[in-house]
C-alpha cells in the first residue's frame, strides 16, 4: 500500500494554470492516466487541469528516463499497469516534475504535447481480457433482497464471502459511447406460459467503482490479503448497465447473463492507487453480531486502511432537458466508504482458488449504495422496482420526476446518465475521477 509522499503536497502547483483551480478534478496531485486517439495513433495520456499530456510525445523528446520509455510509448496502459511499484512511483514522480510550475524541462516542448480535454478522443485505457463484477454493498444487497425475499433479504453466504460473477469484457465501452437498448427473452405474461422476446422496458444503470489489476498471479497461485494492494494499479468509475426484466427471467440458477452483457461503460480515467493514498480509510464497520472475515480475508492493514473515502454521484439528462438547455438532474450521491467488502478483499478472494488474474483485468464493486434513500445507486432501488405493495416502510413506489415534468421508473430512450467521483480531505488537494457517461439509444429493429 502506498504512503503519502511529496507528490501529494497540497501546496504544489503546475504551470498548467487550469490545474490550480480549487474545483478541478485533475490537479498536479492526481495525474490520472488515459488513452487518447489522434488520427490513427493511440497514446497514453495524463490528465492535468483541462489538458491531457501525451506522454508518448514527452518520452520522444527525452523527458522521461530511458527505463520508462518502452512502457509509456505503447498504445494501451497494460505495460504501465504491469510495472513494479518502484517503477510506477518513479513514473509518477517524473511526470509530476515535468508539470510542476518550477520545472526545468523545455516548456515549449511540453506545451506541444498537450491536448485540450474537450477535444480529446478517448479509448478504453487498456486491453481488458477479463471482467468480474462483485456485489459488495450491504445496503444494495439488502434493498434488492428485500424486494424479492422480504423475510430473508441476505442469503446465508453474503456476509462471509465477496459475491461476484464473471462479466463480459468484449462489451466494455468507454465513456461517451452510445448504449443500445437490448432486446431479450422475458418472463411469460400470457396464459400459455410462453416467454416473449422484446426490447427491455426496465433498463437501469448501476453506480459502481472499478479497479484494474497491475501485476497478476500464476495459475494455481493465490494472492494474500497482505499483498493484495501490490497487485492493484488504480481505480475508475463503472456503469454496469442492467436490463432488469431480462435479468429477472434468466438469473436463476446461474446468475446474470444477457441482462448485463450488452454493455458496461468505464470512465477513460484511471486514478492510481498512489494518488489515492491520502484518502484511504478504515474498512466498513460491521454491526455487532456480524461474522468476522475468515483469516484469508483479514489483515490489520486492511482493517485500518482498506477503505477509500470516495464521494460518488449519479446525474441524468433527458433529451427534452438537453433541448431546453437545462442542467443535469442529480439522482443520488453516496460514498465508497459504505462498501462492506474492500477492494483488497475482493481481489484476494478472486484469486483464492488459484484463478490467474492478469494485468489489465477489470473488477467492479457492484452497485454502491448507502443507508439513506438519497444514497441508492440504481433506479431499481430508487423507485423500489415500481412496486406499491412492498413490505418495508419508506420504500413506497416513487416515480422520479424530472424538472421538465417527465417521469421515470426506469431509463427512457435518449436518457443520458453520468457518474462522477471525487475525494476530499481538508489536509490535501481535492482530486476527481472525471466523468463516466452513456446515452441510451432505441433498440435495434
Description:
This protein is α+β, with helices and mostly antiparallel strands and about 450 residues long. The protein has two domains: about 5-125, SH3 type barrels (Roll), CATH 2.30.30; about 130-440, Fumarylacetoacetase-like, C-terminal domain (Fumarylacetoacetate hydrolase, domain 2), CATH 3.90.850.10. It is built from eleven helices and 26 strands. It has helices at about 55-60, 65-70, 80, 85-100, 105-110, 140-150, 245-250, 300-305, 320-325, 345-350, 380, and strands spanning about 35-40, 40-50, 50-55, 115, 120-125, 130-135, 165, 170-175, 180, 185, 195-200, 205, 205-215, 230-240, 240-245, 265, 270, 280, 305-310, 310-315, 330-335, 360-365, 400, 405-410, 415-425, 430-440. The strands form seven sheets. Strands 6, 7, 8, 13, 14, 16, 17 and 22 form an eight-stranded mixed sheet that branches. Strands 4-3-2-1-5 form a five-stranded antiparallel sheet. Strands 9-26-25-20-21 form a five-stranded mixed sheet. The chain is globular and about 75 Å long. The relative contact order is 0.17.
Features:
SH3 type barrels, five-stranded antiparallel β-sheet, eight-stranded mixed β-sheet, 26 strands, alpha+beta, single chain
Shape: globular
Radius of gyration: 22 Å
Uncertain segments? 388-395
CATH homologous superfamily grouping of the largest domain: Fumarylacetoacetase-like, C-terminal domain
Provide mean pLDDT, rounded.
94
Tell me the number of strands. Answer: 26
The largest β sheet comes out as: 8 strands, mixed
Computed structural class: alpha+beta
Question: And the CATH topology of the largest domain?
Answer: Fumarylacetoacetate hydrolase, domain 2
Measured between the Cα atoms of the first and last residue, the distance is 50 Å
What is the strand content?
A: 25-35%
The CATH architecture of the largest domain: Alpha-Beta Complex
CATH class of the largest domain: Alpha Beta
Q: In oligomeric terms, what are we looking at?
A: single chain
Amino acid at each position: 500500500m502506498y504512503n503519502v509522499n511529496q507528490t501529494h503536497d497540497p501546496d504544489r502547483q503546475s504551470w498548467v494554470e487550469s490545474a490550480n483551480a480549487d474545483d478541478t478534478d485533475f490537479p498536479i496531485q492526481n495525474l490520472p492516466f488515459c488513452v487518447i486517439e489522434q488520427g490513427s495513433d493511440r497514446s497514453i495520456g495524463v490528465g492535468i487541469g483541462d489538458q491531457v499530456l501525451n506522454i508518448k510525445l514527452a518520452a520522444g523528446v527525452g523527458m522521461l528516463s530511458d527505463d520508462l520509455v518502452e512502457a509509456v510509448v505503447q498504445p494501451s496502459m497494460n505495460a504501465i499497469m504491469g510495472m513494479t511499484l518502484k517503477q510506477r512511483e518513479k513514473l509518477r514522480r517524473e511526470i509530476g516534475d515535468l508539470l510542476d510550475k518550477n520545472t526545468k524541462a523545455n516548456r515549449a516542448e511540453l506545451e506541444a504535447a498537450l491536448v485540450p480535454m474537450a477535444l480529446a478522443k478517448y479509448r478504453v485505457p487498456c486491453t481488458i481480457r477479463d471482467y468480474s463484477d462483485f456485489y459488495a454493498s450491504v445496503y444494495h444487497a439488502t434493498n434488492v433482497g428485500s424486494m424479492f425475499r422480504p423475510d430473508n433479504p441476505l442469503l446465508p453466504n453474503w456476509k462471509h464471502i465477496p459475491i461476484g460473477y464473471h462479466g463480459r469484457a468484449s462489451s466494455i465501452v468507454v465513456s461517451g459511447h452510445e448504449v443500445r437498448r437490448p432486446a431479450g427473452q422475458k418472463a411469460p405474461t400470457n396464459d400459455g406460459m410462453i416467454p416473449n422476446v422484446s426490447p427491455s422496458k426496465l433498463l437501469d444503470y448501476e453506480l459502481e467503482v472499478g479497479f484494474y489489476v497491475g501485476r497478476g498471479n500464476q495459475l494455481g497461485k493465490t494472492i494474500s490479503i497482505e499483498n493484495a494492494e501490490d497487485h492493484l494499479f488504480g481505480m475508475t468509475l463503472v456503469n454496469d448497465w442492467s436490463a432488469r426484466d431480462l435479468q429477472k427471467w434468466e438469473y436463476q440458477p446461474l446468475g446474470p447473463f444477457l441482462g448485463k452483457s450488452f454493455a458496461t461503460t468505464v470512465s477513460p480515467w484511471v486514478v492510481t492507487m498512489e494518488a489515492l493514498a491520502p484518502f484511504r480509510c478504515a474498512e466498513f464497520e460491521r454491526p455487532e453480531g456480524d461474522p468476522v472475515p475468515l483469516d484469508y480475508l483479514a489483515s490489520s492493514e486492511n482493517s485500518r486502511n482498506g477503505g477509500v473515502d470516495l464521494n460518488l454521484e449519479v446525474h441524468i439528462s433527458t433529451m427534452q432537458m438537453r433541448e431546453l438547455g437545462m442542467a443535469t438532474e442529480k439522482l443520488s450521491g453516496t460514498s465508497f466508504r459504505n462498501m462492506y467488502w474492500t477492494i483488497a478483499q475482493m481481489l484476494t478472494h478472486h484469486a483464492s482458488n488459484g484463478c490467474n488474474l492478469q494485468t489489465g483485468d477489470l473488477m467492479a464493486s457492484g452497485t454502491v449504495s448507502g443507508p439513506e434513500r438519497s444514497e441508492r445507486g440504481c433506479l431499481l432501488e430508487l423507485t423500489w422496482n415500481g412496486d406499491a405493495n412492498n413490505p418495508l416502510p419508506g420504500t413506497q413506489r416513487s416515480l422520479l420526476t424530472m424538472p421538465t415534468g417527465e417521469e421515470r421508473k426506469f431509463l427512457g430512450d435518449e436518457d443520458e446518465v453520468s457518474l462522477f467521483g471525487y475525494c476530499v480531505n481538508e489536509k490535501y488537494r481535492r482530486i476527481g475521477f472525471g466523468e463516466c457517461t452513456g446515452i441510451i439509444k432505441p433498440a435495434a429493429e
